[in-house]
Design a protein that fits this description.
By secondary structure, this protein is mainly alpha-helical. The chain has one domain. Strands 1-2 form a two-stranded antiparallel sheet. The longest helix is centred in the last third of the chain and has 22 residues. The termini are far apart.
Length: about 180
């Protein structure tokens, strides 16, 4: 069984984002946060870093497991957007070991398999960590958590790729379908 992790350093941010009687903190129980569940806050934080295309580097991830919040894989994947975000991370991640398009696509498809769920969720943790960090760094600039969320939604534009970068890219499925562009 696999888990995703909300690290202890982001516990205050998590508690501020959720409204639930399930949490021990006063911040979470005051019903000020926009999310009902920890998993929804996790998906939102990961979405921020995905939009910025800026995961936390592997060597910068916290090493300690003390006081971390774990969310079981099936709980996360049942959240609105949970399954989609896990697949998105796998399908947009480029591995520099795979230099050709075919190798990269094969790696990405392999990463979405059930056998690689731990690796896929570990990658998603890097994005969620970066998203929680982004929110925590900007929290003091906003009057409320809802304002912080609106700022995140307003300020973060998905990265646009350069149109010329895809001119030579050919969908490998076209060969299977015997199609020409």
């Amino acid at each position: 069984m696999a888990n995703v992790t909300i690290y202890a350093e982001h516990r205050d941010m998590l508690d501020a984002l959720i409204t639930s009687g399930k949490v021990a903190s006063i911040a979470g129980a005051t019903k000020t946060g926009p999310f009902k569940d920890q998993r929804d806050a996790y998906v939102f934080a990961a979405s921020i870093a995905i939009a910025l295309n800026n995961p936390t580097a592997v060597d910068s991830m916290p090493k300690t497991t003390k006081d971390n919040t774990l969310i079981k894989d099936h709980t996360l994947l049942a959240a609105n957007g949970g399954k989609e975000i896990a697949i998105t991370v796998a399908m947009t991640t480029m591995d520099i070991e795979h230099l050709t398009i075919d190798q990269s696509l094969s790696y990405q498809l392999d990463l979405i398999s059930e056998e690689r769920v731990v690796e896929r969720l570990s990658l998603l943790d890097r994005f969620a960590h970066a998203g929680f960090k982004w929110l925590a760094e900007r929290r003091d600039d906003e009057s409320s958590i809802r304002d912080l969320m609106l700022t995140a939604i307003d300020e973060i534009d998905c990265l646009k790729s350069d149109d010329s970068a895809t001119e030579d890219v050919r969908d490998p499925l076209l060969d299977l379908l015997d199609m020409q562009l």
